Amino acid sequence: MSHIDALRERLYQLSDLDHAASLASWDQQTMMPARGGAARAESLATLARIRHEMFVAGETGRLLDAAAAQLDGAGDAADPDSDDARLVWLTRRDYDKARRVPSALAAELARAASVGHEAWAAARAASDFRAFAPYLSHNLELTRRYVECHLDDPDFSCAYDVLLDDYEPRMPTAQVAALFEELRTDLVALIAAVAAAPPVSETPLHARFAIDGQRRLVAEVVGMMGFTADAWRMDDTVHPFALRIGSGDVRITNRWDEGYWPMGLYGSMHECGHGLYEAGLAPSLMRTPLGSGESLGMHESQSRLWENMVGRGRAFCTVLAPRIAALAQGELSDLDADRLFTAVNRVKPDFIRVEADEATYGLHIVLRFELEQALVDGRLAVSELPEAWNDRMRSDLGVQVTDDAHGVLQDVHWSGASFGYFPTYALGNLIAGQLWARVREDIPELEAQLADGDLAPLREWLRDRIHRHGSKFTTAELLQSATGAPIAAAPYTAYLREKLSRVYGVDLGPRRAGGNGA
Amino acid sequence: MSHIDALRERLYQLSDLDHAASLASWDQQTMMPARGGAARAESLATLARIRHEMFVAGETGRLLDAAAAQLDGAGDAADPDSDDARLVWLTRRDYDKARRVPSALAAELARAASVGHEAWAAARAASDFRAFAPYLSHNLELTRRYVECHLDDPDFSCAYDVLLDDYEPRMPTAQVAALFEELRTDLVALIAAVAAAPPVSETPLHARFAIDGQRRLVAEVVGMMGFTADAWRMDDTVHPFALRIGSGDVRITNRWDEGYWPMGLYGSMHECGHGLYEAGLAPSLMRTPLGSGESLGMHESQSRLWENMVGRGRAFCTVLAPRIAALAQGELSDLDADRLFTAVNRVKPDFIRVEADEATYGLHIVLRFELEQALVDGRLAVSELPEAWNDRMRSDLGVQVTDDAHGVLQDVHWSGASFGYFPTYALGNLIAGQLWARVREDIPELEAQLADGDLAPLREWLRDRIHRHGSKFTTAELLQSATGAPIAAAPYTAYLREKLSRVYGVDLGPRRAGGNGA
Fold first, then answer.
1. Which letter, b or e, does each residue of A41-65 get, where b requires 16 or more Cβ atoms within 10 Å of its Cβ?
2. HSE on the CB side for A235, CA within 13 Å?
3. How confident is the model at residue B518 (pLDDT cuts 50, 70, 90)?
4. Which residues of B touch A20 (CB under 8 A)?
5. Which of A235, A303, B64, B316 has the greatest number of CB atoms lying within 10 Å of its CB?
6. Cβ contact, residue pair A33, B246, below 8 Å
7. Under an 8 A CB cutoff, do A249 and B39 touch?
8. pLDDT of amino acid A185
């Protein structure tokens, strides 16, 4: 067996443990009887511990060294973009990062995340930030210790770089900050312009639509997207997610509200977008670290593109409106594509991130990105967080937060010490905007295809440019090869401005050239 | 941490791996998309390998030695029946047995089982024993090598002892052979006597019963048995089974036939019986080797008792008949308890084990038990197996096997080298007969309770005598403490004779005193 094959063999086994853990997590959120939770937590903890020990063991390092030497020995024959070379590079990077964290700290972080989650859930139910504050402080303390393990790593130039890298690998904080500053300025101006336009009706969103009918609609839509019963599942859950258990086994989840049907439809398109990324991976990458979507931002770009650019686009509304009308009947029986398009794209600043529209969503993220950096750096005390949150909601979104449950306590992430995760949501929107601009150029007939319900050409374009590469290339490399440009905010805000001009029937102007001038 | 606790900690982790593997296996048979099979097989193989390596590692032996020394040091304070003492004893025994098998042979057996299963499925579909014969020969060869690893173990006095012990621990082949000889003689005589009686109608078994109605019936019945939504699941599958994933998480599975409703009802009661055993374990035994049902025979006794003694008993037919009549309507709308009782207990010799009635079932098992011993010992050549099978079916059951698919190829077990498994099915019937005789003495009002649908007293009796002990005691010890007697065939055949006398309306006589005289 070659050294590369020996390394692969070990990585296959780690992947097999991930397979089991993914399934256990999926089951916990979809199938498991309530009283099974304690034993499930123990099993998941053991799988994670065994996996971590196998990964950081010296044997992994020796296999990596031998594989790297074998590649070097191949001389000119070694393509730096080959699967083998990329596998060794990515695994080495993950290995070195994982080895820097003492097992005791990793275990403390895992325990704190679990305890913090319980405390957060109780505090949110009581809308009492002060009850959660000590847990948040503890999570920040552990997070700073985690950061310290990496500060002499030349890849990182600030504390937040270390954290962001766990979710958005190889994306510097400074780059995100610059993108977000441009995004915030553009969105604030756009939202103000929309607010000055005549309001549009969101009545269709709140019409009654029986859940059985919603399920039929969603089955049709995800079928058009590429869901097939022989390699996918769709089940109900409380907080929807998508994952691939293994090759040929992608699972998406959903939730339904009879009085708010967009949740089921757009949630399904979102999760199916994630699923298509995982389903589109090249088989040769499976069971290795290359065999999953690259950064969370790239992953989110896929879900957002399908949910928003396709699902809330005018062209596909031509497909959706008559099916909604037929399946929902009642108040929706005369729904047409224009009314659907208008309603699902209305802009409405509000408290809750996960319910935000495409324009205000980004502001929710920029706020969290800036506050969590200040928390990690110690520039903002935990006790000052609710006021800072509420101030920012007022100045950016113009909403007055009434209680912590609808404000600073609304999201789960900080309770699990997941600092650095939030930015990936907005990065996903930006990347989706760039890919969308490019695919419209590459496939001139795209709008006509979408209006016909023919989603295969778009899916195949995404598969070819993004999906099949898994984690072989960085997000920056993937974007460069797919669009010829680095990550940017302008394509997304231009897309939004064009769409909202049509929704509101007013000219919201061309993309600003940057800077703060109007 | 005490040495006992250190040992427990390691065993907990092995149990956590079993938890993950059980879930993966359940999912594979109930939920997994078809194309997920190859990756699932890899994940299961890796979990099994890691589990095996952790278990047979020298560290396990050192922890066992230290724990045993700690128990010895406790002197008189050490109760040999304590959880700790039994845990060390059982783990030591499993450890010593597992250490005797070279990893290479274990891997070869696993691979042969997998390959053999494919070959068997194809051969059965073509009803072609000769296509399967080389795989069966290879499985036998590996099985003999497995046996050789254990032949100097003083616990075993013949090759088959080694195999049987994997399924029915600490039960000697000679004891099973004596029990089965008595069982066979009794059953052959009983079946002959029944054949001479006026036939009874099985018409109700084949009446149409819509599957939705069957599901409602089964939900009511398993609810009476103890199924609760917070700790159990029931799903559809091809080959039903029951397992406990972990504490508070018991899963049973089922299949349905609109034209043969007993499959869904009695299959569910059978699997729920298995589930009650697992659900009734003492919490202190969970996540250890003591934390599962003792032998497969004891496990099968629980499923058979609920399926046959309760479900096909005259008392519970009083509950079942009106519910079947109400839910099925049509041809079953005038079903009464007597007609139900008669139909579900009719005796009908036939080819297929899994469809056999209570009286003929045992003969299917005795035949397999004797043939597989002869195969392992080399007294019977693989090429001679179909003829030996067919001869025995003719002489014992009076049926003429028409093709291998309905004969020697009907069961999956030998394709997976699971020699020694079959006897546990019939041992389960015998044990069920003994427990049933005893619980009728202990709870004089049992029949009245069953006729009222009050199944809790029976369940609690079984929990107290059997379920809560897990694997802490051997089957022989459990039977002795529950019934005051060693395992025997007579209670089961007496139960059958009494029941069938009522079904056929003739006196099938008292239990024979043993021997071959009538």
1. ebbbbbbbbbbbebbbeeebeebbe
2. 18
3. very low
4. 20-21, 23-24, 43, 47
5. B316
6. no
7. yes
8. 96
Q: How far is CA B193 from the centre of its chain?
A: 28
pLDDT of residue A511 exceeding 60: no
Structure tokens, A131: 């009850």
> For residue range A446-502, what is the model confidence (pLDDT) as tens digits?
999 999 999 999 999 999 999 999 999 999 999 999 999 999 999 999 999 999 999
pLDDT for A196 equals 95
Contact indicator for B270, B304 with CB cutoff of 8 Å: yes
Percent of chain B scoring above 70 in pLDDT: 98
- Please identify every residue of A annotated as catalytic: 271
Interface predicted TM-score of the whole assembly (ipTM), two decimals: 0.93
* Interchain pair B35, A248: CB under 8 A: yes
Looking up tokens 């699941």 gives: B233
Of A35, A49, A230, nearest to B33 by CB-CB distance is A230
pLDDT score of A77: 66
Residues of B catalogued as catalytic: 271
Residues of B in contact with A245 (CB under 8 A): 32, 36, 39-40
Strand order in the sheet with B249-254: B232-236, B249-254, B242-246
Residue B200 has a CB neighbour count (10 Å cut-off) of 19
A249–B40: do the CB atoms touch at under 8 Å? yes
Give dist(CA B95, CA B310) in Å, integer: 38
A275 closest CA partner among A309, A307, A299, A296: A299
Residue B515 — pLDDT band, cuts 50, 70, 90?
A: very low
The domains of chain A, with CATH numbers, are: 3-99 (no CATH), 139-510 (1.10.1370.30)
Please give the pLDDT value at position B514. 45
What single-letter DSSP state applies at residue B511? P
Burial B397-412 (b: 16+ CB within 10 A, else e): bebebeebbbbbbbbe
| C-alpha distance from A150 to closest chain B C-alpha (Å) | 31
Give the pLDDT confidence of A289-311 residue by residue, as tens digits. Answer: 999 988 999 999 999 999 999 99
pLDDT at A512: 52
Would you say B276 and B304 are in contact if contact means Cβ atoms under 8 Å apart?
no
Over pLDDT 90: what percentage of chain A? Answer: 92
A249, B35 contact by CB (below 8 A): yes
At A79-133, the pLDDT tens digits run 889 999 999 999 999 999 999 999 889 889 988 988 898 899 999 999 999 999 9
Using CB atoms, pick whichever of B19, B45, B249 lies closest to residue A33. B249
> Are A415 and A116 spatial neighbours (Cβ–Cβ below 8 Å)?
yes
Tell me if A16 and B229 make a contact (CB, 8 A cut-off): no
| pLDDT tens per residue, range A1-50 | 799 999 999 999 999 999 999 999 999 999 999 999 999 999 999 999 99
Q: Average pLDDT, whole number, for chain B?
A: 95
Q: How many whole angstroms separate alpha carbon B274 and alpha carbon B356? A: 19
pLDDT of residue B516: 38
| Cα A19 to Cα A57, B12, B48, B455, B482, distances in angstroms | 20, 21, 14, 40, 43
CA distance A485 to A478: 10
The C-alpha R_g of chain B, in whole angstroms, comes to: 23
Residue of B nearest to A9 (CA): B46
Nearest to A248 among B36, B50, B245 (CB): B36
A232-236 and A249-254 as β-strands: parallel, antiparallel, unpaired? parallel
Integer Cα distance of A432 and A438 in angstroms: 10
Of the residues A14, A31, A281, A286, the best mutation for testing chain B's interface (the one with the most B CB atoms within 10 Å of its CB) is A31
Count of CB pairs separated by less than 8 Å, A with B: 139
- Judged by CB atoms closer than 8 Å, whether chains meet at A23 and B21 is answered as no
Contact B390, B397 (CB under 8 A): no
